[in-house]
Amino acid sequence: DGGITQSPKYLFRKEGQNVTLSCEQNLNHDAMYWYRQDPGQGLRLIYYSQIVNDFQKGDIAEGYSVSREKKESFPLTVTSAQKNPTAFYLCASGYVLNTEAFFGQGTRLTVV
Amino acid sequence: DQQVKQNSPSLSVQEGRISILNCDYTNSMFDYFLWYKKYPAEGPTFLISISSIKDKNEDGRFTVFLNKSAKHLSLHIVPSQPGDSAVYFCAASGGSDYKLSFGAGTTVTVRA
Predict the structure, then answer these.
(1) Cβ–Cβ < 8 Å for B73, A18
(2) What is the pLDDT of residue A98?
(3) Which of B63, B65, B73 is closest to B26 using CA atoms?
(4) CA distances from A94 to B44, B60, B62, B71 (A)
(5) How does residue A41 score in pLDDT terms, banded at 50, 70 and 90?
(6) What are the helix (H) ranges across B14-56?
(7) SS3 category, A37
(8) Whether the predicted pLDDT of B12 surpasses 90
(9) For a FRET experiment, which of A20, A107, B33, B60 has its CA 20 to 30 Å from that of B71?
């Protein structure tokens, strides 16, 4: 089946550790996005990418890093520099212009 | 600075009645607008979109209206059903940047 897959669904990490969230899509989409949702808030853009080996910072990129080595994959690393990493993280993919983006099921990261 | 704004955090409507959700934007370069529906702990799902060349788009119970001069769009759900209870996000993109910017969301509760 075509779709976008995020793993794992729940993730726990100790404070100070880096953690990588996986996002894979087999929809042949060029664009991929990472968003963060906090309780009672909207979706805030962390990073986005249009093409392999290229990506741009979103509105809240500090403390995060990404890579786009393959069209299908756009992993997000939450580094120890991210002050408030506990959140619900959403990955999305789509064609570049004037089309909808499709979202994965999300990863809830809890840092203790 | 948030470029897409949903000023009503919540909306309660009786089953069978119309739900009207509003969204304002500030970036005049936006030319494509979308509405997403989201249940807790899940990724958003695409509902309906509209291009700036149109002022209305209809899909079943869902209609989106766009007023470019006012930089305002709205989503009408008629008739509202209990399964429509969710958070609704407005999103926009356009210009040379393909990123999707989201509003803070409106929580809709449909009462029996």
Answers:
(1) no
(2) 65
(3) B73
(4) 13, 24, 22, 25
(5) confident
(6) none
(7) strand
(8) yes
(9) B60
Report the chain B residue with the minimal C-alpha distance to residue A42: B104
Q: What pLDDT is stored for residue A40 in this prediction?
A: 73
Q: What is the pLDDT confidence band of residue A11, given thresholds at 50, 70 and 90?
A: very high
| Assigned token pair, B63 | 């209609």
Instruction: Give percent above pLDDT 70 in chain A.
Output: 97
Q: Is the pLDDT of residue A101 over 70?
A: yes
Cβ-based contacts of B46 with chain A (< 8 Å)? 100-102
DSSP A1-70: ---EEEE-SEEEE-TT--EEEEEEE-S--SEEEEEEE-TT--EEEEEEEEETTEEEE-TT-TTEEE--SB
pLDDT > 90 fraction of chain A, expressed in percent and rounded: 79
| Contact criterion met (CB < 8 Å) for B44 and A90 | yes
Task: Flag if A45 and B43 touch (Cβ within 8 Å).
Answer: no
- B31-70 confidence digits (pLDDT tens): 999 999 999 888 999 999 999 999 999 999 999 999 999 9
CB–CB of B89 and A43 under 8 A? yes
Q: Both tokens of residue B92?
A: 């926009």
- Give the amino acid at A11: L
Look up residue B27 and give its DSSP letter.
-
**Closest residue in chain B to residue A48, using alpha carbons only:** B99
Is the CB of A61 inside 8 Å of chain B's CB atoms?
Answer: no
Cα(B111)–Cα(B109) distance, rounded to whole angstroms?
A: 6
